[in-house]
Structures are given as C-alpha cells and as structure tokens.
Amino acid sequence: MTVDALTDVAGLRVGHATRTGGGWLTGSTVVLAPDGGVIAAVDVRGGGPGTKETDALDPRNLVQKIEAVVLTGGSAYGLDSASGVMAWLEERGRGVRVDVDPAHVVPVVPAAAVFDLGRGGDFRARPDAALGRAAVEAADASAPGGPVREGCVGAGTGAVIGQIKGGVGSASVVLGSGITVGALVVANAAGSAVQPETGALYGELAQGRTAYPSLEAHEAARQRLAEIAAKNGPPPLHTTLAVVATDADLTRAQAQKLAGTAHDGIARAVRPVHLLNDGDTVFALATGARSLDAANPLALNEILAAGADLVTRAIARAVRGAESVDGPGGVWPSYEELYGGG
User: Fold this and answer.
1) 125-182 pLDDT, tens per residue?
2) What is the model's pLDDT at position 63?
3) By the 8 A CB rule, do 140 and 158 touch?
4) In the predicted model, is pLDDT for residue 299 greater than 90?
5) Which of 203, 269, 296, 322 is the most exposed place for a label (fewest CB within 10 A)?
C-alpha cells in the first residue's frame, strides 16, 4: 500500500520539528536515509540560496552517499539545525569513515533554508541544532512507509507563497516499470501559486484541473488580499525547496539530472520562479533498490518526467494543506480560507 508521499520510496523517512507561538513560526524537516546512505545530488536555481554542504554532492567530488537531508526555516541562521542532525548521526557511527575506527565518521548532511525570519513576530526565533535533532529523532521514530504530515509543519511552518500561506506537501507515483518516485516540497515563493485571472492554482491547472473558483469567491479573495497587503509590506526573501527521490539505481550524474529537471515542476506551480529573492533548491536521492533497463539509454526519462510532475503536485498539496496565520509577524490567509467555499 502506498501513501502518496516521499516515504513510498522504501527506506526513506521524514520527520518534522515545529515551533509556534511566543514569536515563533518556523521549523525544520529531515529526510532520513536508510543506514548506509543514498546517492544524492542538488540543483540550485534561485538567486538567494541558503545552503550547506551542497558542494559535496557534485559528482566530481569525493562523497559518494549521504545519510540525511535537512530542510529548514530561519534563512542562513537556520542551517545550524543541520548540526543537530550531524551529532545524532555521529552517535550512531553513520557518516563518511575517516580512519580504521568505526566511530570516527564525518556525517555529510546537506541542508537548505527558506526565509521565514520574523514571520512569528520575533526575528531571532529561528531553528537551531536542538530543533534539527528533534526533527531527525521524529524521522527515526516514524514507521517505514508511513504518511508524511503536510501543511504548516516543519520547514513549512512559516512558509508563504505570494500573499497566501505556504507549507509542506508531498506526492509519489509507481511507474509502469515498477520504479517508485516521490517528492517533498517546502512551498515558500516570492511568486504566486494562484492564477490572477481566475483564482485557480497553477499547480492544479498543470495537472488538468478544469473546475475554477466562482467569480464571487475570486473577487472576495482579491479584496481580502488587498486589505492585508499594506499590513504585511513587501516580503524581502523567500525560497522553495524540494527533495525528489527514487528507488532506481542512479549514478550521481543521473541524480543531478533528476534534480535539475525537477525544477520544471516548481515553474509549473509558481509564477514567476527562480527570482533573485528566491533560493530555489532541489535535492535528488536514489536508494538503488531497482535497476534501470541497461538496454534502454533513455530509461531515465520516465523518472525525470515523474519527478517534475510530482513537485508540481506536491506544491499544490502544500498550498491546499496550509492553515491561515494572523499574528504579530503578519497576516497570511490560506487558500482554503479564500477559495474553499468557492
């Protein structure tokens, strides 16, 4: 049985740590690999990324596999959450062995951050090593193949997409070949997820949706957003993050191709995208459980296409699953509040 989430890729688990109230509106999310790690790659296309250890994923460099990926709020400050994940992995001897002592490891934990500073009211309320550790512990405690919480949790707690609330979304598919592909996103973009003429979600239109909100609902939503725009002011920075994974046996170069193609999924669901005040980053993971058809040099194509489609669908689910926020850091209505009845 599948749960239509990243965790349908066997061996991967997801954990969230969330902090709200008292000036907080942020969190961290960890994708935990099975012991022994997974092939990984990254593609960064936003103009203002906040990342850690992404150079290690270059196929020209030494590191072959990683044990975890961290997605976090807090902008560059929030990257400290990866330290908590590193400590947890070190305690279990998981990481790159550096000498004959099995306890002497260096966990390579790539991380990327979204900008959510001050959205809970306190600019200094951001994820740290303790929150990162809580997220990896939550991933470790989760059941294999279990559902992934969506909406305003983990790194999506303070996410905003355009003028409305963003969050975490996930999706998966089993291809005709039997290969599984999954995606998890943190939707937090300077661009909009909503078509301005109709109020429909770009991500749902890209999936072939034909039902649109009523004209009355769309006009009421536009008026509501206009009323709160002055209070919030112009958002300075954003960033959409994604992890795309498969159980196929990919090389590091093939995984990097998957990460790059998956950015097309963001572009279908958010407009405009990859701006200077976004830091859009996609990680690709491959567990290697299933072989590609060696006789078909284009066998990777169906995985590439699926990765992009799943990112689009996951962004739409993140927006649908988000809840409204009205607090000291700003007002961001959810899509469901604006259009749910229309």
Assistant:
1) 999 999 999 999 999 999 999 999 999 999 999 999 999 999 999 999 999 999 999 9
2) 92
3) no
4) yes
5) 296
DSSP, collapsed to helix, strand or coil, labels residue 73 as: coil
CB–CB of 332/161 below 8 Å?
no
Tokens for 306? 């699926």
Helices (H), 206-326: 215-232, 252-269, 301-321
What b/e sequence results for 119-141 when a residue is b if at least 16 CB atoms lie within 10 Å of its CB, and e otherwise? bbebeebbbbbebbbbbbbbbee
Query: What is the C-alpha separation between 10 and 69, in angstroms, rounded?
Result: 16
Q: Are 255 and 40 in contact (CB under 8 A)?
A: yes
The CA–CA distances, whole Å, from 11 to 4, 36, 170, 287, 300 equal: 15, 11, 16, 8, 21
Peptide bond into 272 cis (omega under 30): yes
Distance of alpha carbon 58 from the chain centroid:
20
Q: Give the distance from CA 53 to its chain's centroid.
A: 17
Q: What is the mean pLDDT of residues 91-112?
A: 95
Q: pTM of this prediction?
A: 0.96
Query: Does residue 287 register a pLDDT over 70?
Result: yes
